[in-house]
Design goal:
Chain A is of the alpha/beta class and 300 residues long. In chain A, 35% of the residues lie in helices and 14% in strands. Chain B is of the alpha/beta class and 635 residues long. Chain B has 4 domains: 228 residues, Rossmann fold (3-Layer(aba) Sandwich); 86 residues, Elongation Factor Tu (Ef-tu), domain 3 (Beta Barrel); 109 residues, Translation factors (Elongation Factor Tu (Ef-tu), domain 3); 180 residues, 3-Layer(aba) Sandwich (Rossmann fold), CATH 3.40.50.300. Classes of the chains: A alpha/beta (300), B alpha/beta (635). At the A-B interface, α1, α2, α6 and α7 of A face α2, α4, α6, β2 and β3 of B.
């Protein structure tokens, strides 16, 4: 008898979920955020449908404030696998000059990410969107279904979720409703890294330590990624060897000082570390239960 | 994350290698409100050093703010995620937690004890290898303990940990512990299905016997909780069973490749193996097991694969690929255990969408054989199932499917039921066996065909289904239409709601369940009449869309003509020729449509008559004109 390891079981489960969507959705899309979880999700999609290509496009909601290396990586990946890539930007937000420096993280995230995502889903009439969220990331995620329903105005109702039994997903929906599907629901951060290592999956180089220009602001190390980053009085640009545990908008993503330049070193550092992953992300700190509230409003 | 292994610091590559071989255990925790489930899970995460410093400091702040444990850390706050739950202090939904030790990765479904959320417990249990059933040592076995154990046993979880919690509050009394253990074992034996029970005395709050053996229970010799979870044998029996793979998706990137993608429910498969596809029963041989990393020599239960076959046979989503020598059964009628999960009760006779494996079919539940009282396990007569009730029911499908009894295979024997109107998942069930009559009562082929009967009449058969409020004028209009059709030489019959209730349906009342059955019977009679070639006029309030849909689905395309006799409640009530509205308003008639029972208006009726605009005579002429236009009759 062949005993399956936990990674093999997680892989099989995720592939099964993706194929269910391909079979039952009218117009699915994969939200691709360029991070390590998206990299794993895309890798699984390539496996699920081989030798065919994944029967859905990738979509990136670009806030225009992502690290430049992320954009380069995104375009390289789409080209390498010959995938359809949709890039959506909230042009209204751009016209109003919305940005994290001028408007703060919560307005910026709401307009350029949450609103932009809703615009994009409505514009292309996608009925099912894959997301790379994991249940171990945050408390409200832990209670979310794999097939997570959204009303016609994209709201999540945590008290009215469909029970999910065995391997049976009810993907039926009424007109206007949509579904967010999370194939990585049962993966942990450690699983993701182990799988990237085992499968030799390409990830954005920002995850690896390297000398980068940074400035210390509000206790975080913010990378000076382009000329829009202006130094405040008393701030000094310095070169430090840093890496990023999560990737997002560069002004909102703090780096950590690290020497971990290879995958095993990253995993080693993670296993010996004492702070949780989302701490580098500013969004969770805004208020108690903030993620739950954002999700109800339509944040992925 | 502070995994305590020297290997991490000294040889990370070696460590990663060893971690790749970890196994996975999924378990659920269940118990009553306040038994301490969330505290137990919080404690497991804390003790296995999976709580980060930033989380811990947030937890300390939260604990002080909530004030439930004085100045001590409230571990429950770690896992009670949603804001609304924090306010109420109860867990309202299934939450999934993850932790790992050097030996295993664990996925925990934290399931609520509140009675109205039993469906969520079943959700967590459906994928679990093991169940931890919590008992408050002070309270012993409660109704919820029985209910949860019952669900655990019916869902086929063979391993149970009986966690006798809050031992600190009973002075770590061996007597209290063993009384509970003995009572539970007796109950479980009566229940059946739970093969292995491990009882552990513990205190989640104090940390006794969770990770470390407690000095407070020196009389206890069994394993502590984490040790047991790390070593319990989860028999991977699915690999030893016959091969089953429900086909999810047909992979056709080009004309030269045709692969069948699916998740292997049971057994193993190799190139060269002989397979049978159900329900078509066509056979072939496996050619390749295709993956992006190259073809496999063998695949086993639990893997997602793509198979190609030697022969070109027609296979689509919903078919099941089986080993040819030991295929699944095929049937369209079953005895099942059903757990109802919706606020609206289960109505016998109403069609639901059933999903089993990868097939989606229409299923109708016949009257429940019995409901099971989860406290006494007694069988009770039942007309319907309410939210969270469990019953044994027969099920009839609109086509045959491949299946195995649930006891043999969860994946090919478990199903969900979906409401056709709301699309909500309303029930879950487990197949016991196929009913013999589905194979023995064959459809009797008739010598005289339907078309012959129809041709003799000189017109096409049809059902004119008049629906509307009481007093809307359905029967009046139907009578005029009938008279005119007879005058034109058509063969007709009227089925009137009131009249049918004097005979065929005199055993039925006016509850929602009886209304559904009332319409089902009338629809079947109307179908027989169309088979005889008649134009049948059905005049029934028929308030529910689902039943009118059932009637529509029974007839051939174009034969069902829904006539909505549209009268406002005010007008119908003002007419009140039979004096019924007056009685209903006075509370003398219960469940009266429009008063205290809903009327669901047709969304797309073939014909809509607005009685405030046209007379009954004009309405009848319009209906006949439309019948002529549709080619049913020639005038």
């Amino acid at each position: 008898m062949k005993s399956l390891t936990h990674l093999q079981r997680l892989e099989a489960e995720s592939i099964h979920i993706m194929r269910e969507v391909a079979a039952e959705a009218d117009n699915p899309v994969m939200l691709y955020s360029i991070g390590k979880d998206s990299a794993v999700m895309l890798h699984l999609a390539l496996k699920a449908f081989y030798p065919a290509k994944p029967p859905f496009p990738l979509m990136h909601v670009d806030t225009t404030w992502k690290f430049r290396e992320m954009i380069t990586f995104r375009d390289k990946v789409a080209e390498k696998y010959g995938l359809d890539l949709i890039v959506h930007v909230n042009e209204d937000g751009v016209r109003q000059g919305i940005g994290p420096f001028t408007h703060g993280s919560s307005v910026h995230t709401d307009v350029m990410k949450t609103q932009a995502l809703k615009q994009a889903l409505d514009k292309h009439k996608f009925d099912v969107a894959f997301g790379g969220a994991r249940r171990d990331e945050e408390k409200s995620r832990a209670k979310e279904r794999v097939f997570s329903f959204r009303s016609a105005d994209h709201r999540w109702d945590p008290k009215n979720q469909r029970p999910e039994l065995w391997r049976l997903f009810n993907a039926r929906k009424n007109k206007g409703e949509s579904i967010r599907v999370f194939p990585l629901s049962n993966w942990t951060e450690l699983d993701i890294w182990q799988y990237i290592h085992r499968e030799k999956i390409d990830i954005v180089p920002l995850y690896f330590a390297a000398p980068r220009p940074v400035v210390e602001r509000d206790g975080a190390l913010i990378m000076i990624d382009d000329e829009r980053m202006e130094l405040l009085p008393g701030e000094v640009a310095q070169e430090k060897t840093v890496r990023f545990r999560t990737l997002g908008c560069y002004p909102l993503t703090g780096g950590i000082e690290s020497e971990a330049a290879t995958l095993p070193e990253i995993i080693q550092e993670m296993l010996l570390t004492t702070t949780s992953e989302r701490q580098g992300r500013m969004i969770d700190h805004d208020q108690a239960a903030s993620m739950e509230k954002k999700k109800q409003e339509g944040y992925f | 994350m502070a995994h305590k292994s020297d290997l991490i610091a000294s040889d990370i590559e070696g460590y990663l290698k060893s971690q790749e071989e970890k196994s996975l255990l999924r378990f659920i925790t269940c118990g009553s409100v306040d038994d301490g489930k969330s505290t137990l899970i919080g404690r497991l995460l804390y003790e296995s050093k999976l709580i980060f410093e930033d989380q811990l400091s947030a937890l300390e702040a939260d604990s002080k703010k909530m004030g439930t444990q004085g100045n001590r850390i409230d571990f429950a706050l770690l896992v009670d995620g949603l804001a609304s739950e924090r306010e109420q202090g109860i867990t309202i939904d299934v939450a999934y937690r993850f932790f790992s030790t050097e030996k295993r990765k664990f996925i925990v479904a934290d399931t609520p004890g509140h009675e109205q959320y039993t469906r969520n417990m079943a959700t967590g249990a459906s994928n679990a290898d093991l169940a931890i059933i919590l008992i408050d040592a002070r309270k012993g076995i409660l109704t919820q303990t029985r209910r949860h154990s019952f669900i655990v046993s019916r869902l086929g979880i063979e391993n149970v940990v009986l966690a006798v919690n809050k031992m600190d509050l009973v002075g770590y009394s061996q007597q209290v512990f063993s009384d509970i253990e003995i009572a539970y074992r007796a109950f479980a034996k009566e229940l059946g299905g739970i093969e292995h029970i491990t009882a552990i005395p513990m205190s989640a709050l104090e940390g006794d016997n969770i990770v470390e053996r407690s000095a407070n229970t020196d009389w206890y010799n069994g394993p502590v909780l984490l040790e047991h979870l790390e070593t319990v044998g989860v028999r991977d029996v699915m690999q030893t069973k016959a091969f089953r793979m429900p086909v999810q998706w047909v992979n056709r990137p080009n004309l030269d490749f045709r692969g069948f993608a699916g998740f292997i429910s049971s057994g193993t498969i190799k190139p060269g193996d002989r397979i049978k596809v159900l329900p078509s029963a066509k056979e072939s041989t496996v050619a390749r097991i295709v993956t992006i990393d190259g073809d496999l020599d063998e695949a086993v239960a639990g893997q997602s694969v793509t198979l190609t076959l030697e022969d070109e046979i027609d296979i689509s989503r919903g078919d099941t690929i089986c080993t040819a020598g030991d295929p699944a059964e095929v049937a369209n009628q079953f005895e099942t255990t059903l757990l109802w999960m919706a606020d609206e009760p289960m109505y016998p006779g109403r069609p639901y969408v059933m999903k089993i494996g990868t097939s989606t079919v229409n299923a109708t539940i016949t009257r429940p054989k019995y409901r099971i009282d989860v406290n006494t396990l007694a069988h009770e007569a039942a007309h319907e199932l309410q939210l969270n009730e469990v019953g044994v029911c027969n099920l009839s499908l609109d086509r045959a499917i491949a299946f195995d009894p649930y006891a043999d295979n969860r994946e090919t024997g478990g199903f969900i039921l979906i409401d056709k109107m709301t699309n909500a998942t309303v029930g879950m069930g487990m197949i016991h066996f196929a009913l013999r009559r589905s194979s023995n009562v064959h459809w009797q082929a008739l010598d005289v065909e339907r078309s012959t009967r129809s041709a003799m009449k000189g017109h096409k058969p049809a059902v004119l289904w008049f629906t509307g409020l009481s007093g809307s004028g359905k029967s009046t209009i139907a009578n005029i239409v009938d008279r005119k059709l007879i005058a034109a030489g058509a063969h007709t019959m009227i089925l009137d709601g009131d009249n049918v209730r004097h005979g065929l349906n005199k055993d039925l009342g006016f509850t929602d369940a009886d209304r559904v059955e009332n319409i089902r019977r009338v629809a079947e009679v109307a179908k027989l009449m169309t088979d005889a070639g008649l134009i049948t006029l059905v005049s029934f309030i028929s308030p529910f869309r689902a039943e009118r849909r059932l009637a529509r689905d029974l007839m051939a395309g174009g034969e069902f003509v829904e006539v909505h006799v549209d009268t406002s409640l005010e007008v119908a009530e003002a007419r009140d020729r039979k004096g019924l509205y007056k009685k209903a308003r006075a509370g003398l008639i219960k469940n009266f449509t429009g008063i205290d029972s809903p009327y669901e208006e047709p969304e797309n009726p073939e014909i809509r008559i607005d009685t405030s605009e046209v007379s009954a005579e004009a309405a009848a002429d319009e209906i006949i004109r439309q019948l002529a236009e549709a080619g049913v009759v020639t005038l």
